[in-house]
């Protein structure tokens, strides 16, 4: 695999002493993984943050080899990771995406929707302004993977949105995360708890 593309970094797992295995969502190639040499070093640590928009260059010698990835930061989500609610929301959206999508299947609508959701989380005045987008993104994931999912009305208030968010959780757990680790769903539980304090 050889490609150069804008991408949303959705997970970064340490590998060896200084490297990172990054998973990135691209519009045309879907979810791709790459080995980032020095990803835990001082220069790349601010780049290898889930939620960041990057320009990725992947190069591999064969299809069976994990590609080497070079990342250039385009837009950082780092400043919002110091805020508890945005940090949890970014963490949940990226962890869910990294966990449930198969690699190398293009989902252009999910790429666009995740970018819009992350922008909303980072730029909205409060969670009331991006919660509908989070629910819509989860519903889109369910639909794209063949399990349905409903989008709330545009005028929905916070309490009904939280109810829809609560009802959608078991669908995600049953259909998308059935064979996955429970710690992914725990991130959603933390987000729901924080949002519940706003009512």
From TrEMBL:
Keyword flag DNA repair: yes
Keywords associated with the record: DNA damage, DNA recombination, DNA repair
Protein origin, superkingdom: Bacteria
Pfam families linked: RecO_C (PF02565), RecO_N (PF11967)
Coiled-coil ranges (or none): none
Domain (DNA replication/recombination mediator RecO N-terminal): residue spans on this chain: 1-75
InterPro entries: DNA_rep/recomb_RecO_N, NA-bd_OB-fold, RecO
The protein's name: Recombination protein O N-terminal domain-containing protein
Organism: Parerythrobacter lacustris
């Amino acid at each position: 695999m050889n490609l150069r593309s804008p991408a949303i970094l959705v997970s970064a797992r340490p590998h060896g002493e200084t490297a990172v295995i990054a998973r990135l969502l691209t519009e045309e190639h879907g979810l791709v993984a790459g080995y980032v040499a020095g990803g835990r070093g001082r220069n790349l640590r601010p780049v290898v943050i889930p939620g960041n928009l990057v320009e990725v260059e992947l190069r591999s010698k064969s299809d069976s080899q994990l590609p080497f990835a070079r990342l250039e930061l385009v837009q950082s989500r780092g400043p919002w990771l110091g805020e508890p609610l945005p940090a949890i929301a970014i963490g949940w959206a990226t962890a869910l995406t990294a966990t449930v999508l198969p690699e190398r299947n293009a989902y252009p609508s999910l790429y666009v929707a995740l970018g819009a959701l992350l922008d909303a989380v980072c730029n909205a005045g409060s969670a009331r302004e991006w919660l509908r987008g989070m629910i819509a993104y989860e519903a889109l994931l369910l639909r794209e993977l063949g399990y349905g999912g409903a989008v709330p009305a545009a005028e929905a208030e916070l309490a009904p949105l939280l109810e829809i968010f609560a009802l959608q959780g078991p669908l995600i757990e049953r259909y998308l995360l059935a064979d996955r680790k429970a710690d992914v769903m725990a991130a959603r539980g933390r987000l729901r708890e924080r949002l519940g304090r706003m009512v």
